[in-house]
Amino acid sequence: MNHRSSIAGGLLALAALAASGQADAQDTWRRPNRAMRHVHRRVGALDYHVVSIDLTAPGVRVVGTPESMLAPRAPGGPPAWRTTSDFARTVGAEVAINANYYDIFHGAFTTCGLTMSGGRVWRSAYVDRRLDCWASVGFGARGRVAMFDSRGKVYGPAPEPWMREVVTGSPRVLANGEVLPLTAPRHALVPNPRTLVGVSADRRTLYLMVVNGREGANKGMTCMDAARVLRDFGASDAVNLDGGGSSTLFIRSEGGLVTRPADRLERPVANHLGVVFDAAPEPDDAPAAPPRAMRAAVALPTTTPRREFAPSPAGRAAKTGVVRAGCQASPGPVAPEAAWTALALAVVVAVVRRSPRERG
User: Does residue 297 fall inside a structural domain?
Assistant: First the structure.
């Protein structure tokens, strides 16, 4: 095979790969009520969940793990860590995820970075210079939420008196709609199972994202790739929480644990973040399809146009449905996969036309 044919063949393969990525994507949408939407997306080797919660809906309340819940089972014993499922059932959460990094080797310490529940700061938290746990998210009554740098405040106080619940992770991955460039820590730069929490620019919508990984071809995502996905769904700011074998997503209305833990078994962790519906939100029985803008959007690990995922005021989203994203028509910007396909084909043509003939 000559040089020109080799280049053309490689670029055609790239074009085919870009085109096939969209066709293979499959979304499963669920919406038990008008305050919540859940999508499970599988595309190629990627497998992840994104849940959006309308923080302004009546009765929606964000809760963290009380430090007292980790009381040793025996005097002087280690903290009694709990699985996300156990936490959710104990506090009555509809949705829950794992939260802070934690020290699995030292029984005297629990969460890495500022941790608060019910207005009480955890006294057993610690500082880890390797992880730099100071990317914090604070929640308060009536849907209030803010992200802040808790450096030097592992034992509080929270920066705002209205904050009642605080979880902390590392690193911050989204700020004002921009994906933050990362050079450390190392785990953020390689694919891993992940848990992230994000909020919309107007602070009305909470996003919880959990990425499956460490199974076959599915290794997970880097922090920057996960940040791009969350941005595409509508998040403006986001923080990476503990991941790996700790990453778990619990949804009560879907039977409990909906993710696949990397350890195969659900791992007990130090703390969690949950959403409780004190007043049952209105049911959403409308047999509508997912938002049109999302039908053709396949959030591959590449830069894509931002799209809104937050629950619409009218609550018109599919209660349950499977959508093959590559098979749906959608107005608006050209999907990035199609753009890559066109670019690759254009380069092939240019190479073929401009390459000198092979000499015999």
Answer: yes
Residue 319, domain member (yes or no): yes
- Cβ atoms within 10 A of the Cβ of 256, count? 15
What average pLDDT does the structure give for the chain? 79
Total structural domains in the chain?
1
Return the DSSP state at 252.
Answer: G
CB count within 10 Å of CB 17 equals 14
Q: Is 323 helix (H, G, I), strand (E, B) or coil?
A: strand
Decide: 39 and 47 in contact? Cβ < 8 Å. Answer: no
pLDDT per position as a tens digit, 130-180: 889 999 999 999 999 999 999 999 999 999 999 999 999 999 999 999 999
Query: What is the residue range of 108's domain?
Result: 10-338
CB neighbours of 103 closer than 8 A, spacing ≥ 6?
109, 110, 112, 126, 128, 270
Is residue 198 one of the residues assigned to a domain?
yes
Sign for the pseudo-dihedral over CA of 275, 124, 259, 189: positive
Give domain status of residue 261, yes or no: yes
Phi, psi of 9 (to 5 degrees): -65, -40
